[in-house]
Each structure stands twice: as C-alpha cells, then as structure tokens.
Design a protein that fits this description.
Elements (H helix, E strand, L loop, with lengths): L1 E6 L6 H15 L3 E6 L5 H4 L7 E5 L11 E5 L6 H14 L4 E5 L6 H6 L3 E3 L9 E5 L16 H6 L3 H7 L9 E5 L7 H10 L4 E5 L3 H16 L9 E5 L5 H10 L2 E5 L2 H9 L3 E4 L7 H13 L3 H10 L11 H16 L4 H11 L12
Parallel strand pairs: 1-2, 1-4, 2-3, 4-5, 5-7, 8-9, 8-11, 9-10, 11-12
Antiparallel strand pairs: 6-7
Helix pairs in contact: 6-9
The chain binds 2'-deoxy-thymidine-beta-L-rhamnose.
C-alpha cells in the first residue's frame, strides 16, 4: 500500500521523531511511504542515512498531490483543503475511501482505550461525508500499542556498550553510575545535580544536545559563581553529546544505568531499553500533564520513591528524593515484559487499516 503520513513540527523533536519511526517501520514491512512535513531539518541528524522506501516531501507539495491508499494525520495536524478535496475525488473515482487515520498523542489515561478505533465523520469542508478513524497509541490491550521495530531485541542483545561509550569519548571506571539526561527545564534539575555531587557513589551525567544541555549549563554556571570549577572534585562528572541519530539515541539509553527522558518518543525508547528511567512530560499550560503523569505511574506500578521523584522532577510537588535506580529497575523490566506481550503499533495499524479498508471505512474494528 502507499501511505501518506502528514506531520507538522510544533516544537521540539517528538512530532517528526514519531513520524519518522512510523514511516521506517512501515517501510521495513514492505509498505511504500510518503512523509509530508513542514520542517524536515531535524531529519538531517535524526536519520542521516534516510530510507529508500520513505520519500520525504514538503508540506506544501500536497496542494498538487493525489492520495495513496492510507492517509495518516499525525497529532491532529490538519490536511490542506486541496488534499482533502483530492481525497474526496479519489473516493468517487475508486468507489471506496482511502483509509484516513488520525494518529493521537500517547497517554495512559483511560480515554485512549475508549476512543481508540472510533470513527469520526467529516462534517464540513472539501472532504465532508468521508470518515476518519482515531488511532490511539497506548500501553494496554485495547489501544494501538507502541512503536517497536521487529529487530529491536536482536540489536539490543548485540549491543557493545563499552565500544559505544568509547566511540563517544566516555571512558569511566565500571563502578561509576551512568545517567543519560534528555529533558526540558525540569524543576528538580538543580536538586538532582546537588544530590549526585554529594552522593558517595560517583555518577557521570551524559547530557544530550539542545534544551537539556542549556538547562544544565545554567545550573553549572550558577554554581560556579560560588564554587569555581564545580562539579570538579565532587562525585558528579559531566559529558556533553552532539545531536545523535535516532539509532544512537537508542544506544545511549541502552548504555546507561538510569535514563531521564521526556515527551513521547524517548519515553517509549526508555521502556524498550528496560533500564530504570525518569520521565519529564511536555508541560501543558492547564497542568493537563499532571493527570497524564498519574495515569502513567499507575500503569507502571511505580514504587513510592519513583512516584515522588517524578512529582518533584515534573514540578507537581516536593523536591527530588534520593536517586534509587535499583529500586526502580523492577517496574521498568516488568513494564517491558507486559508491553512485549502486546502487538506493536505498526502491526496493529496494518491490521486496523485492512479491517477498516476502503469500502469498510465506517466500521469500528478497534484492535
Ligand atoms: O522532543 P520532545 O520533547 O518532543 C515532544 C513530545 O513529542 C510531545 O509529546 C510533543 O507534544 C512535543 O514534542 C511537541 O521529546 P520526544 O517525543 O522524546 O522526541 C525526541 C526525539 O528526538 C526522539 O525521536 C529521539 C530524538 N533524538 C535523537 O534522535 N537524537 C538526539 O540527540 C536527541 C536528543 C533526541
């Protein structure tokens, strides 16, 4: 089938990051993919090798294009009127509607399960009379699942941790705790660095490029006003990464003993890495992310210390308790096992599209 995936980059890297992974995973299963994106610049570092079966096209190009077999609107981005009209015309010409999927944001909240697979009739505009379907990624059966490459476990099993770290210029005694940091500006950042610096156990913080690096630099500079050279001589050491490809971003998570992740895609990658992790949610103005965090921690069956760390890290309440990756490992590993028992997102999407295939577009064949 020919897939048209539409992506608007709002901010950060999650929109394009998820759409790229989806595109590549469809391609790896023999599908043909056109990825329409308004800003493809991040793909230069995220996916420098590209993919032969994924054509990256400019958003504006849809004004002259005709639709393939499946159209995916990622994260509520709206198709241009011309493309909507082309969808309606293709429906008339083919006598059946191309599948039209609205791919939603990831959440553990119950509404994801309730809405997954529901039809959404288009009432107005050039595509009036057609039907879209909601597709909700999620953590439980009854949702669309999570993106997971078919060869992920094989690659992870063959991963050369020491070699990869060496390639990044990171050489440390085996006793040093390795922590990756990918975050926005978490309220608990200052506390985390303070804890690590004072902890008897040495920690090495590997800081990702962009907002995480800027946030850490700010804390370090403030500390150095009082203690020049900080954190030298303490239990904390730091290294700074360049922007990595998505493949190397996974390697980073596999290499570390504890991962700080954010947003949507890196959370999923942390789950597959099966190491303890802390998640910073994309902060929303109305604090909607608080309910999202609570639902996720419940699903994760997080121990009390991990819950309180998350609350502080995300600015919900309190200040970060002691890091305790050993106590947090069990729920991360159990979560991965639960997820592995469920079909991945692309398998579910392929099945969903076939069940709701052109001509059957008004059925609700969730799952
Ligand atoms: O960048 P994010 O904060 O994206 C967010 C979320 O998707 C959020 O839901 C959305 O509302 C908001 O954007 C607009 O975090 P996320 O989702 O983890 O995406 C980061 C992507 O960047 C992920 O695919 C991993 C990738 N990445 C690399 O490939 N190399 C790197 O060096 C880094 C730091 C990230």
């Amino acid at each position: 089938m020919l897939w048209d995936i539409f992506c608007k980059v709002i901010d950060n890297h999650g929109d394009i990051g998820v759409c790229w992974r989806l595109s590549v995973q469809l391609a790896s299963r023999g599908e043909q993919v056109r990825l329409w994106v308004d800003d493809a610049s991040a793909l230069q570092w995220m996916a420098p090798a590209g993919n032969d079966r994924v054509q990256v096209l400019p958003w504006a190009g849809q004004s002259t294009a005709g639709p393939g077999d499946v159209v995916v609107e990622a994260f509520g981005c709206e198709l241009e009127p011309h493309f909507q009209a082309a969808l309606a015309a293709a429906t008339r010409a083919r006598g059946r509607q191309p599948a039209w999927i609205n791919l939603e944001y990831l959440t553990a909240e119950p509404f994801a399960q309730r809405s997954h697979g529901l039809p959404s009739p288009v009432l107005a505009g050039p595509a009036a009379g057609l039907t879209k379907h909601f597709f909700h990624p999620g953590f439980t059966p009854g949702t669309g699942g999570l993106l997971r490459e078919e060869d992920l476990d094989r690659r992870r099993a063959g991963f050369d941790r020491a070699g990869w770290l060496h390639g990044q210029g990171i050489e440390l005694p085996a006793t040093t705790r390795l922590i990756s940091l990918f975050c926005y500006e978490p309220p608990g950042l200052d506390d985390l660095l303070t804890h690590c610096a004072a902890d008897p156990e040495p920690s090495h913080l590997i800081v990702t490029a962009g907002r995480a690096a800027a946030a850490v630099r700010k804390v370090v500079e403030a500390r150095r006003l009082a203690s020049p050279g900080w954190p030298q001589g303490s239990s904390l050491s730091l290294s700074w990464l360049p922007l990595l490809s998505q493949l190397d971003f996974d390697h980073l998570l596999w290499a570390c003993d504890l991962n700080f992740v954010r947003g949507e895609d890196s959370l999923v990658r942390a789950l597959w890495a099966a190491q303890p992790f802390v998640w910073q949610l994309y902060p929303q103005a109305d604090d909607a992310h608080h309910a999202k965090l609570a639902a996720f921690l419940d699903w994760l069956d997080a121990p009390a210390s991990l819950r309180s760390f998350h609350h502080a890290w995300n600015g919900v309440a309190g200040s970060p308790a002691r890091l305790d990756p050993q106590a947090w490992a069990g729920c991360a590993q159990a979560a991965r096992q639960r997820l592995l028992a469920q079909p991945d997102l692309v398998s579910q999407l392929l099945r969903f599209v076939r069940h709701n295939a052109p001509g059957k577009a008004h059925e609700t064949a969730a799952g």
